[in-house]
Design goal:
Length: 109
Amino acid sequence: MKDVPGFPNGRHSSDLEWIDYLRAQSEIWVFVSDDGRILKNRAERAALRGAKLHGFVLAAAYERTPLHQVAATIVWKWPEIERVTELIAPPSMHEIPIGKSVKLRSLPL
């Protein structure tokens, strides 16, 4: 987010700031986060629903996974992520599991 023009506070933006920024854009946005706590905060959940975004949260097992393997798994899962965004109307949240052969898991929003 550091290089996005007009993005408030760059990579130091709060969750509510970047969610609001994406909500205001005309493009369709999908986000991937390693912070599952975003679903535990009532204000952030409401903001995500209102922004009508497709969100993908990395499973907790990724915390112990080397970054290059995390990146490889996201690239491996990208066709499935695209299918979900085409088939399901936003807002939606899904967990990206650690295994390449395990399907995305729908999360309550």
